[in-house]
Amino acid sequence: MKVIKNLVDRDGNGSITLFPEEPEDMWHTYNLLTLGDHLTASAIRKVSTESSTGSTSTHRVHTTLTTTITSIDFDPPSSTLHINGRVITENKHVKLGSYHTLDLELNRNFTITKPNGGWDSVAMQVIRDACDPAEKAEIGAVVMQEGLANVCLVTEYMTVLRQRVDVSLPRKRRGVAMVSFDKGMERFYEQVYQAILKHLPIESLKVVLLASPGFLADGLMKYIFAKATTAGNIPLLRSRPKFITAHTSSGHIHSLSELLASQEIQARLTNTRFLKESRAIDEFYAMMTTDEDRAWYGISEVEKAVGKGAVQTLLISNSLMRSQTVVERRRYVRMVEEVKGNGGEALVLSSVHESGRRLDGLGGVAAILGFPLLGLDEDENEEEAEEEEEGQRLEKEANGEGAVNGVNGTEVVKVKV
Amino acid sequence: MSLGGQQQPNITVSNTAELERVAKTRKNLDVAEEYKKLKTKENANFVVIGHVDAGKSTLMGRLLYDLGVVDERTLKKYKQEAEKIGKSSFAFAWVLDQTSEERSRGVTIDIASNKFETENCSYTILDAPGHKDFIPNMIAGASQADFAVLVIDSTTGEFETGFNFRGQTKEHTLLVRSMGVQRIIVAVNKLDNANWSSARFEEITAQIGQFLTTAGFNPKNVSFVPCSGLTGANVTKKPKEGLIPWYTGGTLVDELEKTKPSKRAIEKPFRLTVADVFRGGVMHPVSVAGRVDAGSVQVGDILVDMPTGERAAVKAIEVDDEQRDWAIAGHNAVLHLAGIEIDHIRQGDILCDPTHPIPAVSSFNMKILAFESITPMMVDIHRGRLNTAGRVAKMIAVYDKATGTVTKKKPRHILAGGLASITVQVDNGPGVIGGGTIPVEVGTRIVLRAFGQTVAAGLVEA
Ligand SMILES: Nc1nc2c(ncn2[C@@H]2O[C@H](COP(=O)(O)OP(=O)(O)OP(=O)(O)O)[C@@H](O)[C@H]2O)c(=O)[nH]1
Ligand SMILES: [Mg+2]
């Protein structure tokens, strides 16, 4: 990503014009956008014209539109971003106030304008990360168990499942010949091999990890290179040093975190961001078992720990940061800033990595404390406090504070405040 | 309702004609009545568990050979072939280690089932793999077992390794207990390596006995048998005079015979957990093998497969390789099906009574015994042969182990060893078959694992 123009003032208001260059930039953009922001981007609009004879014809015109964002849709596998909004600038092809979906494209400028000091420190960090020219590690990872393989692409910020292979292998029963087990296994390997060829850009990857319990990963490794040899697939044979086998206890995607925790893999992938994130969440869980008073999760608990200056490492998922109310986002940004201000570390984890998914399971935020604190979950009448908080949030939204979201609006109706 | 996101069976109509044709062959038997009338032998399944290389497969191979289930010629062939690849000590194990991978590596990977009969009972052996990587397969076997045989390697150092903190002796035992097994026979094996020392036997008996009690086994359901699978001593035959003068009990087979068969859920709605799906022959394009967990089935019945919701008709039934008109809870059966495609039924599915199908749910509550510390976390959910990805989504309460009263609601952390209720959510990632649901009902036994360790086990609750 490149910053083309930065017109943000000291209060965090204003606009930034960006130039996305690679698919992952769409993910960064997704994390920058908030409902209510203004987005200016090029659009294709169908225009009907009526000729003097009364016949109509439609044609497409390229134009530039500015909308107020009403909803955002991101599709990780294809890295595409669709942004719905209402048109707010006069345009000769489009009526003011009409709805339009902007599909951002690579190599085309767009401009985001944020009101209410929306360019906060976390948003500016996203911009810096996106524009970091350092070489980015991309790895292929195939995690397997008997009959199941998940073929994944892991980039700095995203883990994308490219293909899932799921076949039934024959089971041991009396009267089943030995060859049928071998045949079943070979069929499985063949499908995984084809999925790798089709979905992993091996030549541009740093490493390709094959991982499983038992002997599957080794078996697949042998299969791949036996196949590559007979097929004379020179590029694949040349990539052989990139292939590493490793151990996981299952073939489910979440075993990727187990894979990243292994020392051998860590040695090959030093300084990659996703490894750091993965390690941080592992440390949180480890702390929970060794000293539970130094491991806290959940927004109100962690917020209290932050308030007491106790947080050594704050983990927060960008799914929370994408929170669609400005008020809430400010609350999270404040936590990040306070922890950093106290000399702690604050990591914003990507919710589309396994580490981020684990964090989301903990409510999106967790903290390792420098010293133990007791009973952060206990004061007040817990349940009531929680309900009240939720009630207040919904009330604010209903009053139009923050949320500009129709969906949240309907939620209010369902919940008794 | 705690069983979240239930799926209704989506019954397809294309195969109705086929289903109806088979349904006409139904003899409308009262299966429970037939079962009472039929004076067949009792039948029981037992799972053979223990640390890797404890000698489980060898012991079972020996037992089958000495009882004449495996003939001389077959064993001779195994001996020769095993010798050729430098694995001659594994000849007996080859009776159960059937695949080339297992034989060349000398390790059991998947459950092997085999049958033998004594005077009063027909047994199905479920020989489990000991290696920790294959615990999912061990769980599949344990889920079908009425009781367990725990095999211990009494060789100096080996018992200690298997019994320590990360060995599989304890993990397997805790797993079978939490899967409902109450009776356990401990085969103190490889005693030939320990000079048939009574001191060694006593030492192992004391340590294991104490552990079994803490694991929740009633001492009266536990027995210890000194033996050697390799030499065959005290497996099916009394050992030579003077070998173990200090032992007065019976052989391994004697102990098996002392086991009372467990109660069968005959009156409950029909459930069969699919262990394997295969082409049963030209006449039978779709066949399934599995144990009848509950209820009964007869030729002509229409069943529903869960979680897919597809219907199938039962064309023919085999129990113990014999054609039958019906099968009942406890039987290991092969059902030949019509009206369903082979790709539409999978290992781990549950075939059910269509009027009372098991719900397929995306989340459920369960009461657990925590083996490790639990916080909201990613887990592998095991239900017999089925295993799928999921997460501990909510922690409902922790209980006092003695009184069962709630000690804390909404705990943030459950300590290892604790008793608790939690909500488990099934992953619904793209391409997950069954759309991110799992067939469970109140009382279903579930094991949760993470990072290669069993973290909790327990029962689905309302
Ligand atoms: N001395 C002696 N060796 C034995 C005995 N039983 C088994 N062994 C040896 O122990 C090794 C492992 O035997 P297996 O039967 O494969 O052990 P297992 O418990 O089935 O192993 P897994 O299924 O892989 O966990 C083989 O080399 C056997 O010959 C015994 O009673 N005495
Ligand atoms: Mg074995």
From TrEMBL, chain A:
Any one cellular-component term (Gene Ontology): Dom34-Hbs1 complex
Compositionally skewed regions (Acidic residues) per UniProt: 378-390
Similarity-based family: Belongs to the eukaryotic release factor 1 family. Pelota subfamily.
Function: Component of the Dom34-Hbs1 complex, a complex that recognizes stalled ribosomes and triggers the No-Go Decay (NGD) pathway. In the Dom34-Hbs1 complex, dom34 recognizes ribosomes stalled at the 3' end of an mRNA and engages stalled ribosomes by destabilizing mRNA in the mRNA channel. Following ribosome-binding, the Dom34-Hbs1 complex promotes the disassembly of stalled ribosomes, followed by degradation of damaged mRNAs as part of the NGD pathway.
Lineage of the organism: Eukaryota, Fungi, Dikarya, Ascomycota, Pezizomycotina
Principal localisation: cytoplasm
Protein name: Protein DOM34 homolog
Location of the region described as Disordered in the Swiss-Prot/TrEMBL record: 378-417
Gene3D superfamilies: 3.30.1330.30, eRF1 domain 2, Pelota, domain A
Keyword annotations of the record: Cell cycle, Cell division, Cytoplasm, Meiosis, Metal-binding, Mitosis
Ranges of Low complexity composition bias in the record: 400-417
GO terms assigned for molecular function: metal ion binding
Residue span(s) of domain eRF1/Pelota-like N-terminal: 1-132
Cellular compartment(s): Cytoplasm
A UniProt-annotated Pfam family: eRF1_3
GO biological process: cell division; meiotic cell cycle; nonfunctional rRNA decay; nuclear-transcribed mRNA catabolic process, no-go decay; nuclear-transcribed mRNA catabolic process, non-stop decay; ribosome disassembly; RNA surveillance; translation
Required co-factors: a divalent metal cation
Presence of keyword NAD: no
From TrEMBL, chain B:
Subcellular location per the Swiss-Prot or TrEMBL entry: Cytoplasm
Keyword tags: Cytoplasm, GTP-binding, Hydrolase, Nucleotide-binding, Protein biosynthesis
CDD domains named in the record: EF1_alpha, HBS1-like_II
Catalytic activity line of the entry: GTP + H2O = GDP + phosphate + H(+)
GO molecular function, one term: GTPase activity
Domain Tr-type G residues, every copy: 41-264
A GO CC term assigned to this protein in UniProt: Dom34-Hbs1 complex
InterPro entries, A to Z: EFTu-like_2, G_TR_CS, P-loop_NTPase, T_Tr_GTP-bd_dom, TRAFAC_GTPase_members, Transl_B-barrel_sf, Transl_elong_EF1A/Init_IF2_C
Transcription is among the record's keywords: no
GO biological process: cytoplasmic translational termination
Presence of keyword Hydrolase: yes
Subunit organization: Component of the Dom34-Hbs1 complex, also named Pelota-HBS1L complex, composed of dom34 and hbs1.
Similarity comment: family membership: Belongs to the TRAFAC class translation factor GTPase superfamily. Classic translation factor GTPase family. EF-Tu/EF-1A subfamily.
PANTHER family, sorted: TRANSLATION FACTOR
UniProt-recorded name of the protein: Elongation factor 1 alpha-like protein
Native species: Terfezia boudieri ATCC MYA-4762
